[in-house]
Write a structure and sequence with these properties.
With 267 residues, the chain is α/β, with parallel strands linked by helices. It has 11 helices and 9 strands. Strand 2, helix 3 and strand 3 form a beta-alpha-beta unit. The protein starts with a helix and ends in an 8-residue tail after the last strand.
């Protein structure tokens, strides 16, 4: 990827295009779900149940997988004021056959769900040992490239923790919501430490649109012919540009930016 700020800093930046894996189950969504899906195919009588917000890429991908592979899916959505008609993504999940339950934020925080049946539970965002292990193939793909740094957007931290588990260098994780304490608990839970978590690019509440990020995404797409969205990848690339301009990385660095996919939200 070429840009004048990279040239001035004498840094090379490459993009791992995991967004090209599939138009819907793209990037880290597929990698984090892959091992759970394998278990579900062996247990077709049990629905896959998981959690997310109104614009959850994770639930969206899970609903599509369920539809394509004839796997029952259940989505527990944060916000009892919502319905499946609240936005186009919830509507699409409903049409793909995912059973949606909308619960209040207190229940959601406690991960209480109104489902009285046996299910296979996928933690929010695909987090968990299976989700972390699903990142191993990504590391196998980038190891021969031998970057000096890897940078990725962070939601639950699963992708960054998965890379760190199978790669011996720290990951730069650009946080997209105010959940550093949660991510640090995840680190301790699996004893995967040493990553560098950056909170400077959250820019308010999760999924809140800002002119800064929206304009950056449009400029980035025009410059590089690569689509990014304002919730995850937009903040990650914005943070990367800012860090390079601030001379955070030494000259000669070979940075690999993970394009982890994501839904491009409507205006």
């Amino acid at each position: 990827m070429n840009h004048s700020i990279f040239k001035e800093a004498e840094i090379k930046v490459y993009v791992k295009r995991d967004d090209l894996i599939h138009p819907i189950i793209s990037g880290n969504k597929w990698r984090k779900l892959s091992e759970y899906i394998g278990i579900a195919k062996e247990n077709p009588e049990l629905p896959l149940l998981s959690f997310g917000g109104a614009y959850s890429n994770h639930l969206y991908a899970l609903a599509f997988v369920g539809n394509q592979l004839n796997i029952q899916t259940i989505g527990i959505v944060r916000g009892d004021e919502l319905t499946y008609t609240s936005n186009p993504y919830l509507t699409q999940m409903h049409e793909w056959g995912m059973r949606l339950y909308f619960i209040n934020r207190k229940q959601y925080k406690l991960k209480v769900w109104p489902v009285n049946e046996k299910v296979l539970v996928i933690p929010e965002g695909g987090y968990g040992e299976l989700g972390i292990n699903g990142i191993s193939q990504l590391v196998n793909e980038v190891t021969p490239f031998d970057p000096t740094h890897i940078i990725t957007a962070v939601g639950t931290g699963t992708t960054a923790l998965g890379i760190r588990k199978f790669w011996d260098k720290p990951i730069y994780g650009i946080l997209t919501l105010n959940n550093l304490a949660e991510i640090q608990r995840h680190e301790n839970e699996f004893n995967i430490t040493g990553n560098i978590w950056l909170e400077d690019y959250i820019m308010g509440k999760y999924a809140k649109k800002t002119d800064i990020i929206n304009n950056f995404c449009a400029t980035f797409e025009n410059d590089h012919q690569v689509k990014i969205e304002p919730i995850y990848t937009g903040k990650m690339f914005y943070g990367l540009y800012d860090l390079i301009q601030k001379k955070h990385f030494p000259r000669g660095s070979k940075i690999l930016a993970l394009h982890s996919g994501g839904i491009k939200l409507p205006n």
